[in-house]
Amino acid sequence: MVDWQTVAQSVAGGLLLGGVYALVALGLNLIFGVMKVINFAHGTFMMLGMYASYWLFTLYGIDPYPGILLVAPLFLLLGVLVERVVVSRILDAPEHDQLLVTLGVSLFLQNLALALFKADPRSIRPLYADWSFSVGGVVLSAPRLGAFLAALALAGLFFWLLRSTDLGKAMRAAAEEREGAILVGIDVRWIYALAFGIGTALVAVAGSIVLPFFTVSPSVGETFLLTAFITVVLGGLGSFPGALIGGLLIGLVEGLGALLPGSLRQLPVFILFVLSLLVRPQGLLGSRQ
Amino acid sequence: MQQGYGRSIGRRDFLKLGLAALATSAAACAPAAAPAPPTGPRVSEVKVGSLHPLTGTGAFEGNLVARGVRLRIEEANAAGGIKSLGGAKINLIEADTQGKPEVGQSETERLIREGCVVLMGAFHSAVTIVTTQVAEREGVPFVISVAVSDRILQRGFKYSFRQQPNASMMGRLTVRALKEVVDAASGQYRRVAFIHEDTEMGQSISAAAFSALKEAGFEVVEDITYNAARITDVTPEASRVRAANPDIILINGYYADTLLWVRTFRDLRVSPKAIVGLANALLSNPNFIKEEPKLAEYMIDGNYWWNPNSERARRVKEAYEKRYNEPFTNHSAQGYQSADVLVDALERAASTDRDRIREALAKTKLTDIIVPGDSIEFDETGQNKNAQPLLLQILQGVVTPVAPQKYAAGRPVFPIPPLEERLR
Question: How, if at all, do strands B142-144 and B118-121 pair?
Fold first, then answer.
């Protein structure tokens, strides 16, 4: 027996989380779109973003939302650093080598987090942790609603950056046609580093905004990484609106999947995924190469 | 579009690589096996392997168990080692299963190659199923520290032993204790929503709890299974529970996922007469009380614990808190007690011969124990016959055993105050 209220609640819960999925996928897609590198350390950076916000809150009382102003530049820098020191060396390597390198970065950072912070699950309790709004019987929890709105706002900011700034144009140019970009005087090396940095900052901020309702531990990144991969492929490789819509769609389907009995919750997501591969292999908004 | 030295990765490659990476991340993490040093006849040390999830899913609890094991072994060594072996020290080799059966298997094989004559582990039931199988094949005694599934000892194994209650005892005895509490409060609260995670632990506990619930006259009005490692949002499931309007919510799960459940119930204003854990890693955890003091108050959990009336348990608790500078938990208590069983068996075996140790383990009769029960004695499957879980409730910020009567240190509060009152 499923009443409409439960369905509405499932849709709302799924969509709210979908916003976060989209933000995680946007960063992954940016790095892939520009550099053609699949970043397996992506989930790990999210975990580190969560820890950064956790410590800002715990030690200095800085809430994760204003904390974004610190976390984003910090991880932009970290991303640029990782790109310059590690990833830039393997750009022309065979893809399985790239995989091993980004996976290696991920393992290193995960174990570093384990050594520094131990495996204890940690969570924070900001003032608004138990606020919630009831809209026609559907309860929206404040931390989740906040995460959703922040994710959309950040996605909007990111789209503006990509479309309307010189940096964005240069990134798109480097993604589209690397040699051409070099010919017109774009320093592709720095564009790559910045793309990696921005992708890292996006996912770290995604970590910040889930922290008010989610528990952080060194292995938490894996929970989100698989979903991000599916989102990217579903939305279309390299397509940013695709990642946004893909994220929301996966959240929605996952939410509705919860109405199924037993552990079948993930099933609709993967059915959707397989269907999209069969019917529209380039992804929802991807273009055929 | 891809020209020059920019390479192209198509969707197929992306998928292939993705799958490959997910598969290899398991193998990639396994430490390389070291060649086995030959074990001579001279007994200067006894090698004991400890297998627990020190990273990955379950790492938090896994480390707690491992620390309990370590404490007992350190005590034994400090007290002069195994006396019947001329004071041989126990060399504890710790390995990380990462909560993955395949890693557990390779690590078990490595520990045996390195000369461990007895093993302990492995926290996750799904991992322990595999590690005990390897140990059985190699003829190495395996003392289960924590792992609850019945199935582990239902395969006619000769080398596996477990002092903690198994899943069906956990389910059956918890529901029995819960029935006592409910009956004492008028007995009219019989509608139960049952939530359980979907790995070996959840499956085996829930099967036993289901029949016990039915027997005790409870009605299961909602039954939800979930994947603890993957779950990020339980709003939809929680609203299903809200729609069913149960008196009692029964949850079997790990720390982070149960926290998600409890917080979501708060957000959705679900206010049952009790939230009860079944071998739950959150609802009787002191860390939870620190993180969410208001939500934690009045939560109930049926779990393995230490005997609050045991003098030795009090001493161990003190020693643990001094050694690790963190609160003593039931997980560490199980680790400690299981290592105690092992030390006792080594002492009686007076040998590093695996079969001698196995025999000594089978004849275990320990009465000076820190867990509830009159003694630890194994039946023919290797299960401690007298294992007893306790019903615990968080009262004024302290995890308090409230049932069965014999081991109670406080009186249960049931029904619990409504949510609004609890949050005030």
Answer: parallel
- Paired residues of B392 in beta bridges: B301, B401
pLDDT at A139: 86
Listed residue (A103, A87, A108) closest to A41, CA to CA: A103
Nearest-CA distance A84 → chain B (Å): 17
B292, containing H or E segment:
none
Stretches in chain A below the pLDDT threshold 70: 1-2, 287-289
The enclosing domain of A270 has a CATH number of 1.10.3470
Q: Could you tell me the CATH number of the domain that includes residue B57? A: 3.40.50.2300
Run of H or E residues at B53: none
Task: Kindly indicate the confidence band of residue B37, based on its pLDDT and cuts at 50, 70 and 90.
Answer: very low
* Domain-embedded: residue A289: no
Indicate the SS3 state at residue B419.
helix
Which residues face B143 on adjacent strands? Answer: B120, B161
pTM metric for this prediction: 0.78
For residue B421, give every residue at least 6 positions away whose Cβ sits within 8 Å of its Cβ, in sequence order, or none.
none
Instruction: Indicate if B195 and B330 belong to the same structural domain.
Output: no
User: CA quadruple A54, A56, A62, A67: dihedral positive or negative?
Assistant: negative
Task: Please provide the distance, in angstroms rounded to a whole number, between the alpha carbons at the two ends of chain B.
Answer: 61
Cβ burial of B315 (10 Å; 0-12, 13-18, 19+) is exposed
Amino acid at A77: L
Give the Cα separation of B417 and B271 in Å (integer). 9
The token pair at B183 is 């009956």
Confidence at residue B84, expressed as pLDDT on a 0 to 100 scale:
93
- Interfacial A residues in 192-251 facing B (CB < 8 Å): 213-215, 217-220, 222-224, 226-227, 229, 232-233, 237
